[in-house]
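Q: Hi! First time doing this. I have a protein sequence and I read that you can turn it into a structure. Is that right? Here it is:
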Amino acid sequence: MKELLEKIDEKRAVVGIIGLGYVGLPLLIRFGKTGFPVIGFDIDTKKIESLLHGRSYIQHIPVDSMSELLDTGHLQVTTDFEYLTRVDAVIICVPTPLTEKLEPDLRFLKETTNVVAEYLQQGQLVVLESTTYPGTTEEMMLPRLENKNFRVGHDFFLAFSPEREDPGNKEFTSANIPKVVGGITPNCLRVATALYENIAPRVVPVSSCKVAEMTKLLENIYRSVNIALVNELKILATKMGIDIWEVIEASSTKPFGFMPFYPGPGLGGHCIPIDPFYLSWKAREYDFTTRFIQLAGEINVSMPYYVVERTIEALNGRGKCLKDSRILILGIAYKKDIDDDRESPAYAVIDLLMKKGAQVLYNDPLIPRLKPTRKYKFNMSSVPIQKEVLQSMDAVLILTDHSAYDYQEIVRHAKLVIDTRNATKDVNEGRGKIVKA
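A: Yes, that's right. Below is the predicted 3D structure, encoded as structure tokens:
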């Protein structure tokens, strides 16, 4: 341990990042900028080729700073996992999705852990950052890594530190967000803390990996439950003729005891729609039902259906039925100004509209073509937002409030606008065309 701590202190420790996606890529850049020699691993050859050519495959993550690090040999990216034998710390950032039955799908994590176990070297630190249920690090990873008869806390070190990435957030990045760290043993915690102290403004050590794993789930469950609350209140407020966004704005003036959350067409991203169900699944081992989590999930999953119902009502009010209507979807990304469409509610809305006979087109300046997902296989490309296109649509449905959209022009030329994000709040002309959903 002493040797590894000295390497970390002197920034000679080689840091390996497995999984160069929305979590791993910024972490790779952060460690490289801080002065550590870094090796990035991914099974996707297209990602590796893009990075080697100085191109980013994630819109909000610039890789300009990587060129110099690559040229000097201070940073490497590879698909060859034999390079794990050259690193001192391995940080795992692989996807942890759900199955169709809303159960944890740990295939990628199990496969990655087996690979790390194959190349595990004495004195290495292994850290999991992927979100998962409490007990994963200790119950699933530890037995696999101990196959070489290495003793955890002596021959190698194992810890969990939850990722806290917020794609597109320019105020908070890996450089200024505190890191929570839990270790299997006190030595594991000490080594992991020493590593993260070099890249985070503050490290928050906790008593176990389970506590750290639960911390991440609480953060996302908190958001899921509160978003479900405002989504439900949005439906009620609409029936009562009340603008829920005005209510939230007014409530936000209270200087204590209130934090604003905003409704929308449903939940998206890799965290909030997925992570709460990891805890729900684990809770069943203890004969416990997480009722708040289940109810919040039901409400949030139902929102695309509500959006389609509001669209049908709005069309009916103008003498149109949904079948054969031309609908333009604005925004596929799960939130504004990013190119992340993981678990985006836009896919569910498109699917529902098509099943009811609508002709659906979409525009998203950051997502030129729809990629196949676990559930949906749409063969669609983004159409330009032109006056003629807007005028030819029976309805324009705003699902993502990208800053690039000129909402006044959209409302001016559209026959009907269904706004799920309050994106048209500052539009003055043509407000009679706007329906909130």
